[in-house]
């Protein structure tokens, strides 16, 4: 039995798998006492390995390892970006400087598509990566995510005062909160329009705000993307492939 962990900057996702079977899944924060709620003591006893993909700081990585080790004596292995995995080749001259989540999402995407595609991971940051039909990573972009954009406005502007709220529209705002949240949604729609206009390859989307990107793509006029698919567990799927060799 293998515990797979995707430790992002904001949220930790995990799955307990037995071979190809998914037994348990969950998400939460490192500080939560119920992060691994749902895994029974009996299941912890038979966990044989723990595989982690993380972009967190070294201190946070150590804290995560300590929390996991309190549940199981199974070895905890951290998997980082590599120069290649099978046919998939990383574009970075120093792969270690690429976030592991991006790499594992690309591994999962390549396994699904086996051809040219784009991978969008909409988490704390929004990353977009291109893979050609040979499996060569062509590079990508890193943009601030939805929460990062709103957080920077809250912290970096003295008079842009607003409370957090769920605002899904894109019409011009009539309050500061609407101006901020509608503006962020507008930028996401603009990103989707750019992707839909410029790409003619399948796009796989993951991350906490992935559904927003998928919805914006679906509603984008003139979208030429042949397939846009939401894959919430793409990082974990790629991690499982890397872990299995």
Q: What share of residues is helical?
A: 25-40%
Helix-strand category: alpha/beta
**CATH homologous superfamily grouping of the largest domain:** ATPase, nucleotide binding domain
Shape-level CATH architecture of the largest domain:
2-Layer Sandwich
Task: Indicate the mean pLDDT.
Answer: 91
Which residues sit in consecutive blocks of at least 5 with pLDDT less than 50? Answer: none
> Whole-number radius of gyration?
19 Å
Terminal CA distance? 16 Å
CATH topology of the largest domain: Nucleotidyltransferase, domain 5
The total of beta strands comes to 12
Helix count, per DSSP?
Answer: 7
Number of domains: 2
The largest pleated sheet is described as:
5 strands, mixed
Assign an overall shape.
Answer: globular
Give the strand order of the largest sheet, numbering strands 1, 2, ... along the chain: 3-2-1-4-5
Strand content: 25-35%
The top level CATH class name of the largest domain: Alpha Beta
Order of helices and strands: EEEHEHEEEHEEEHHEHEH
Cofactor: K(+); NH4(+)
Pfam families: Pan_kinase (PF03309)
InterPro entries: ATPase_NBD, Type_III_PanK
Pathway: Cofactor biosynthesis; coenzyme A biosynthesis; CoA from (R)-pantothenate: step 1/5
